[in-house]
């Protein structure tokens, strides 16, 4: 009977040579991490260290500054992206007044109305003075002049804040519609009605409770 051959046991040099030959196989080279893998792991380890407290003491202050700068930059970007449309919408709403773009203040509109009245252009004077009235109440946050609101809708809202002026507000809105949309001629009396109403409301104290 033939005995099995004894297992070959390499010495130290032979074992090292066999190991190097085995590790040189392409299977092992494919399994090695690529430079990109190493870089990604380094970045991941860095961010994990931010939350694990393993940051070297020398980098602590600089790291805090870097994180603060990143947070502030993110907030700035968010405000720039989402805040700008809202500001534009508010500016557009403030500029719209009874269907027309109007950016002038109440004082500017009053001066313009007085100039038109001095020249006998009562239609333009009435329109400008009613807009001055509306801009004044809107700026005082008593009656917001929202886009699409009509003069009669505004008059009804203003009447809830100033119930004693309900009749005058309705008449002033009628006069505005007459000269603006129905093309009826304006008169000194019609302008005086709107101007006196504007003066009374501008001088009136802000209501303590404004009905919705």
From TrEMBL:
Q: Does the keyword Transmembrane apply?
A: yes
For this protein, the record's InterPro entries field holds: TgpA-like_C
Q: Does the keyword Transmembrane helix apply?
A: yes
UniProt entry keywords in alphabetical sequence:
Membrane, Transmembrane, Transmembrane helix
Transmembrane residues, as ranges? Answer: 59-82
Annotated Protein-glutamine gamma-glutamyltransferase-like C-terminal domain ranges read 129-197
UniProt name for this protein:
Protein-glutamine gamma-glutamyltransferase-like C-terminal domain-containing protein
**Native source organism of the sequence:** Microbacterium saccharophilum
Organism placement in taxonomy: Bacteria, Bacillati, Actinomycetota, Actinomycetes, Micrococcales
């Amino acid at each position: 009977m033939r005995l099995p051959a004894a297992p070959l046991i390499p010495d130290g040099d032979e074992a090292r040579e066999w190991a190097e030959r085995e590790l040189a196989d392409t299977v092992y080279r494919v399994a090695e991490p690529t430079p990109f893998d190493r870089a990604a792991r380094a970045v991941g380890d860095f961010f994990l260290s931010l939350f694990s407290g393993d940051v070297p003491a020398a980098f602590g202050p600089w790291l805090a500054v870097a994180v603060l700068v990143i947070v502030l930059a993110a907030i700035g970007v968010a405000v720039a992206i989402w805040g700008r449309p809202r500001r534009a919408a508010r500016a557009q709403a403030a500029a719209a007044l009874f269907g027309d773009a109007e950016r002038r203040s109440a004082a500017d509109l009053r001066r313009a109305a007085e100039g038109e009245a001095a020249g006998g252009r009562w239609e333009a004077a009435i329109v400008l003075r009613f807009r001055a009235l509306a801009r004044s109440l809107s700026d005082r946050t008593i009656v917001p002049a929202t886009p699409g609101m009509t003069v009669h809708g505004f008059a009804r809202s203003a009447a809830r804040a100033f119930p004693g002026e309900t009749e005058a507000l309705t008449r002033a809105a009628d006069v505005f519609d007459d000269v603006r949309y129905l093309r009826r001629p304006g008169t000194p009396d019609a302008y005086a009605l709107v101007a006196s109403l504007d003066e009374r409301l501008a001088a009136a104290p802000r209501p303590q409770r404004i009905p919705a």
